[in-house]
Amino acid sequence: MLGEQDLGHRIVVRRVVGIRAGRPVFSDALGELVEVTDSYLTLTTRTGQLRVPITEVHRAKRVPPTRRPAADAVIEVELAADEAWPAPTRARLGGWLLRAADGWTGRANSALPVGDPDRPLPAALDAVERWYTDQGQPPLVTTPLPLAAPVGAELDRRGWDSRPPVLVQTVGLTVLTTPPDADAGAAVIELVGAPSDEWLAVAASRKGGLPAAARHVLTAVDQVRFAHAYVDGALVAVGRGTVTGQGRWLGLSLIEVLPAARGQGHATALTRALGRWAEAAGATDAFLQVEQHNTAAVALYRKLGFVTHHTYRTRFAPG
């Protein structure tokens, strides 16, 4: 039988769905395993979450991983993410994006090497280093994998180091906005077009302050909502949602629950509320970025149906 070690993997479950002429009738379900208990398995399938009682399981096993996402799919998500987190200072190097925001967050202060830089790779990276030096900032390069593997190899040759890997995860909004039972959390959720001072204070404490460039990154998106969760009038959680990528993608960021209110379902309720807003705006899918070692967040997003689309690393020059 499957166990905790199989969470996050694609599995196929053959289950008994009835009896016909004295013989069992079977049905197969394919999806990502998101929960295992003594009573049931929960899968995220193409049509939503499916809870299968253990008593119905005839056989369950892992299936080989699917083919890695095509380059075009990785580029689509990365460009939607860039649009959702817009650096105030920007330039292009062919198809590559150069971004600076006074050093606030790696995403807004790194080159994004998607597309053709219109020159040989070593010359392109030389140009990246010069551009960031002109900005008075250390050069950073975000390398979506496996798309930017050649860039990563050249940076290895130059002795560049790496920050921890980040998972870029996606889910269909029909999965995100349809909880298996009842929506979690007892907070009142408010979605507004501008962040309150309390919201900004929570974000500043998480990100080490909010310079002027940070305000631009947070607000300079046409379709954006700042989520506030209140219990008895007190703010207990915040989050941010954007709709970008030609209206397809909800981007989730800065989902934060205050320490005293954690474990009560507020992050789940807040995330689903942003999902319903994005659905009403015409979006069909959601993405987020979470550090691989943030196991609590990864577990939460797994239960909400998110699966890893691709990964990236932020690379930085020696010294």
TrEMBL record:
CDD domains found in the cross-reference section: NAT_SF
TM region positions: none
SUPFAM superfamilies: Acyl-CoA N-acyltransferases (Nat)
Domain of life: Bacteria
Ranges where the N-acetyltransferase domain occurs: 189-319
Coiled-coil region list: none
InterPro entries reported in the protein's UniProt record: Acyl_CoA_acyltransferase, GNAT_dom, Rv0428c-like_C
Molecular function GO terms recorded: acyltransferase activity, transferring groups other than amino-acyl groups
PANTHER family linked: L-2,4-DIAMINOBUTYRIC ACID ACETYLTRANSFERASE (PTHR43072:SF60), N-ACETYLTRANSFERASE (PTHR43072)
Protein name, as recorded: GCN5 family acetyltransferase
Source organism per UniProt: Micromonospora maris
